[in-house]
Design a protein that fits this description.
102 residues, OB fold (Dihydrolipoamide Acetyltransferase, E2P), mainly beta, five-stranded mixed beta barrel
Length: 102
């Protein structure tokens, strides 16, 4: 479903954060080159249980947060990605899973 050989970086504003099984989901809006807002779906590979083990919680992010997302884009060209990491405005990076788990 995702092109694991490519990576994209997206600066976007969180519109929703779904802390649920089977995968934690983030929904965000990002402006394209023409200023139009694209609605992105960002999927964590793991469940809330996996995410909790690496520092995530249901309060890690919230709607309105402006973050940088790095991930693998969807193969079908839709605005969706499998998350590799989030970069917060202060430079802190958060990963969705421990490296080497999957």
């Amino acid at each position: 479903m995702f092109d694991m050989g490519r990576s994209v970086t997206l600066k976007a504003t969180v519109t929703d954060y779904l802390w649920a099984n089977p995968h934690v989901m983030i929904y965000a809006g990002a402006k394209d080159n023409k200023g139009a807002v694209q609605k992105w779906t960002i999927e964590l590979r793991g469940s809330p249980t996996v995410a909790t083990k690496v520092g995530w919680s249901k309060d890690t992010i919230k709607p309105g947060d402006e973050l940088t997302f790095v991930g693998h884009p969807a193969k079908n060209g839709t605005e969706s990605m499998r998350l590799e990491k989030i970069v917060f405005p202060n430079g802190m990076e958060l990963y969705p899973e421990m490296q080497g788990w999957f």
